[in-house]
Amino acid sequence: MISDPETFSLLHDSIARFVRERLIPAENRVAEEDAVPAELVGEMRALGLFGLSVPRQYGGLELTLEETLLLVATLCQASPAFRSLIATNVGVGSQTLLMGGTEVQKQRYLPSIASGEMIVSFCLTEPEAGSDAASLRTRAVRDGDAYVLNGAKRFITNAPQAGLFTVMARTDPARKGADGISAFLVEAGTPGLSLGAPMKKMGQQGAHICDVMFDDCRVPKENLLGEREGAGFKTAMQVLDKGRLHVAAVSIGIAERALQEGLRYAAQRKQFGRPIGEFQLVQAMLADSRADIYAARCMTLDAARRRDLGEEITLEASCCKLFASEMCGRVVDRVVQIHGGAGYVAGHAAERLYRDARILRIYEGTSEVQRLIIARELARRHPG
Ligand code: COS
Whose alpha carbon is nearest atom 1 of ligand 1? Predict the structure, then answer.
């Protein structure tokens, strides 16, 4: 849903210009230094990018989901590392607070999350609990006016920069599945909280992940999300419904950029005396990519509009995440193929995009998990 087309169009234009003039020229530096330069982080904050989805009363821009995803797709025409920096503040981090937090918790943290002063990380995955998220083992035991957390979280996006961690931990060991899980707001610097070294990754240099460890980490009882035990897993799943649409938008943005690279190369590169774009087998790869991107875009915006209207979109979000991330994999692969040997050489955008895109089919639920969710939702909506 676009709430105010004129204002949104101005905002979209300014982000598109920022992507073109500031972010794309900085991509190689980000990849080489494995960091987003501080001046660009400042500009991203000034544009309000960290608070796109946060309500105005907490200092954000309060965009609808459709508006947010349109901007995310545009932002992702530059290296996805830029989007990754705002991803947890705009997506899973802030949304956990918005969907499950008390008013006091929201007022305490959301303004600095919206401004980008505080980075928030979402801690669900563990070394032994990936796709089977409900089997997580991190424990939270009530002790007087606090909970004591012990356990470890894995592959946590933005953890090296985070000022706040939303942590899923088991408060009821008698319940092995989802019911025994609660969510906690743990501030960086809390004794007993420590970080592993940033992990080296296949792609998306400039975006950082690491392990987060809790060793007798005392968290005030007021930082139990929603001050309610046992609601953490469901909140995490609701948040992931939206998160999966974000990943679909990222996939659309990366694929769009890859297609532009493919079109440019096909027009410039000559073989057999002609630009390779004049050969039908190359044209077919470009045409299939455009059709793929268009389909992903239509379905993702449709699901976002439905969510904006208050519909439950678990099935649709998984369809979009599955289709768009697989689509992006196909597109970047074709674009490397169009580039031939040059597409395999470091320093070319096609080679980087190929590596950057691989994680899309894995994080926020693998393609296999999305299929499982779609099948379950189908069975639920159409009982025998
Ligand atoms: N919205 C609201 N509630 C939800 C929900 C959703 N999207 N998905 C599940 N729930 C609820 C269920 O209704 C169930 O509640 P009841 O017991 O009251 O019925 C509860 O949560 C447990 O759900 P379920 O039984 O489906 O849990 P499973 O252990 O079978 O796990 C999957 C389901 C596999 C879908 C889940 O573990 C998952 O999404 N795994 C992937 C994790 C992931 O995406 N990780 C990425 C890292 S985080 S960035």
Answer: 238
Report whether residue 365 contacts ligand 1, using a CB cutoff of 6 Å.
yes
Confidence at 347, pLDDT banded by 50, 70, 90: confident
pTM for the model: 0.97
Ligand 1 centroid to Cα of residue 178, in Å, is: 8
Q: State phi, psi for 61 to the nearest 5 degrees.
A: -90, -10
Residue at which a domain ends, from 68, 93, 115: 115
**What average pLDDT does the structure give for the chain?**
97
Q: Ligand 1 centre from 64 Cα, in Å? A: 24
Residue 154, phi then psi, degrees to nearest 5:
-125, 150
- Same domain membership, residue 210 and residue 83: no
Q: How far apart are CA 150 and CA 146, in angstroms?
A: 13
pLDDT tens digits for 201-213? 999 999 999 999 9
Active-site residue set: 364
DSSP 236: H
Q: Which domain holds residue 59?
A: 5-115
| Protein residue closest via CA to atom 3 of ligand 1 | 234
Q: What angle do CA 286, 344, 295 make, to 5 degrees?
A: 30
Tally of domains within the chain: 3
- Which pLDDT belongs to residue 384? 81
**pLDDT(119) > 90:** yes
Tell me what pLDDT residue 176 has.
83
